[in-house]
Amino acid sequence: MVTVKSALASGRKARLLTVARSESKTLSVCQQSSAGATDWCKDICYALALQKGFPNVKNLVDQNWDAIEPYLNDSDTLTILLHGLVSQVKVQLIKDEVPADDWVFRHFWDGDIPSASFATAIRRVAVSFPDIQFWLYTRTFNVTHRLTGLSNLMVYLSVDKDNITSAIKTELAHGEKVMLAFCADTWDQTEQIAAKFPHRRKGPKCPELTGKIPLVVWDGKQGKGACVECGMCIYGRNNVRFASSR
Description:
Elements: E1 6-8, E2 14-17, H1 29-33, H2 39-43, H3 46-53, H4 55-68, H5 75-95, E3 104-107, H6 116-128, E4 133-138, E5 153-159, H7 164-174, E6 179-184, H8 187-194, H9 207-210, E7 216-219, E8 222-225, H10 226-230, E9 240-243
Parallel strand pairs: 2-3, 3-4, 4-5, 5-6, 6-9
Antiparallel strand pairs: 1-2, 7-8
Helix pairs in contact: 3-4, 5-6
């Protein structure tokens, strides 16, 4: 059986799953793994820049995509693959004596949910590991119904100028079962997008992007990533805003 590998986030054990294909000569990262990719996210894609700048990152995402691509419509096999990955992560968390409150796992720092079956697998794995807090940001809105309703799986709709209409429909269908990540070039533009959801909080600016929380918070030799230190998105405490230019 092939395996899927995680990428360790900067800092304390916030494991990140990526399954996007990185062959920029064919399709860009999010184009390959998600039909929900928008023109805006393709234009500012930080993950693709990392792949171009760091060959090891490219190799990792290529390997993971090759592992799952044959099974995109096979939720049982995808569940086995993801379960094996998270099991390995949990072993490492215990080995590193990470406090249970920091047992978190983000799906997709690169790419997005590539199929409905993959969404089903994500849900099954969250049910199997109630002691781990999962979170994700997605533009694959048509699988949202497969993900919501679990206390240890936070789902954020990534909303930008190109998918507002679809996001509004999805949010109306699910209400506060989904959280909202408002994305734009500037902070003012993120507020304009948030205003399209007048019944929801606009959320604060991501504190890592504003410099309120460093990318890594160090405690001696042990580091904790900004997302873990903040915890807002991980536990769905509020909506959030992301600007590509600071």
